[in-house]
Amino acid sequence: MHLLDAMTREGFEEVIAIHDRDSGMRGWIAIHDTSEGPAFGGVRRYEYRSEAESMMDCLRLARAMTHKCRLAELPAGGAKAVLLDEPGVDWPAAYAALGRIVERMGGRFYTGPDVGTGEAELEVLAAHTRFSTDPGPAGPGELEQSTAEGVFRGIGAALHYLDGGLDWSTQRIVVQGLGAVGMELARRLMAHGAKVAGSDIDPERLEWAVQELGIEGLDPNEVLSSPCDVLAPCAMGGLLHDLSLEKLRTRVVAGAANNVLARTLHGDRLHARGVLHVPDFVLNSGALIRGTIFHLEGRREPVSAIGERVARMVTSVLEEAGRTQAPPTRVARRMAERRLAERRASR
Ligand code: NAI
Questions:
Q1: Which is more confidently placed, 346 or 292?
Q2: Which of 191, 225, 266, 303 could form a disulfide with 261 if both were Cys (CB 3.0 to 4.6 A apart)?
Q3: Interval 164-198: pLDDT, tens
């Protein structure tokens, strides 16, 4: 993997390799684009199989953040921080060190939650930089709710696009991953009368969700092949690849998990099989919208307004996909790239 070539190809501005001697923390910060405003992206802490994999993930996620910003027409661009979850790291000290690095970047990069970075880690970060999400009352708040509302309203927009109307009571939705977003999504779907089934690799979490919401519990291995109207991936990315695609028995794939397609060509295959895939970077931008507006405009955008905004984006992407008969992921990327090129050219 040639980092500089990859940066040139994808239009990256800066990639920082991090090693903190005291805590043992190692990772990356990738700044994809600041042509429209500061770059936003959370901190992912994950057990990667290799250094190269961690770097690739960081680049991929940062670029997806730029796409999200352009589609949502936010005065911001994309970035990401990735930390390697390795044995022996002193994590509180690691997040403090990361906070100092982010602070030194002076507001060019704003960071926040992602997989592996929850409330405890954000508290440490926020104590060391002004440019991170404060999980307490001083912060934007309701981030998972914003994401879940966007996913919920976006699923509604996709079903409306397909069926010409929407009756939740006839829809069976399978939610994979009942974490912060998956639970909020399942709660909304149940409240609107949909039939909801869910799974989580954490059996206690699954049991709790079944008790709390009254959803049907599914074995994690049954998720892909369970017949449904919508499969909503809300766990990790990379779910849809050559083998898993064959198992699907759904009309729509639409969820919060970033990069659910192992490769873009898997979106093409879904399209060819008549499965509507709503791009994750369109659906899951609720928290980004809430955080960006909070940091840059100093106000808290209502969760319902965020949901409406995401639903409008989904409809415009699907209508364009329908007009051009192209897979929605390619259409959404093209729309984002076109807007990005226009903005860069006008500056
Ligand atoms: P989370 O960590 O709270 O929840 C993820 C859940 O998925 C956990 O309960 C975990 O046990 C479960 N899980 C992991 N692998 C699984 C598998 N193979 N099968 C079933 N369950 C599995 O994460 P959160 O915040 O709910 O985010 C979910 C996804 O949405 C992530 O991919 C995240 O990157 C993405 N996302 C989240 C946003 C947010 O506002 N939290 C914003 C944008 C994207």
A1: 292
A2: 266
A3: 999 999 999 999 999 999 999 999 999 999 999 99
Ligand 1 in reach of 258 Cβ (< 6 A): yes
* pLDDT above 80 (res 1): no
Atom of ligand 1 nearest to the CA of 257: 32
Which CATH class, in words, describes the domain spanning 3-64+76-128? alpha beta
> Residue ranges per domain, the chain?
3-64+76-128, 143-286+312-334
Q: Is 143 in the pocket of ligand 1 (CB under 6 A)?
A: yes
Percent over 90 (pLDDT), the chain: 96
- Residue of 285, 155, 213, 188 lying closest to 200 (CA atoms): 213
Ligand 1 within 6 A of 149 CB? no
- Protein residue whose Cα sits closest to atom 40 of ligand 1: 144
Going by CA atoms, what residue is nearest to atom 4 of ligand 1? 179
Cα of 347 from ligand 1 centre, angstroms: 37
| Predicted pLDDT of residue 259 | 86
143-286+312-334, which class in CATH? alpha beta
pLDDT of the residue at 343: 81
Say if strands 43-46 and 172-176 run parallel, antiparallel, or are unpaired: unpaired
Q: Determine which helix (DSSP H) or strand (DSSP E) holds 154, and give its type and residue range.
A: helix 143-163
C-alpha distances out from residue 306 to 149, 242, 290, Å: 7, 34, 7
Q: Name the token pair of 102.
A: 């982010």
Q: Is 145 in the pocket of ligand 1 (CB under 6 A)?
A: no
Residue 345 pLDDT > 90: no
CB 43 within 8 A of CB 102: no
Residues with a catalytic annotation lie at: 80
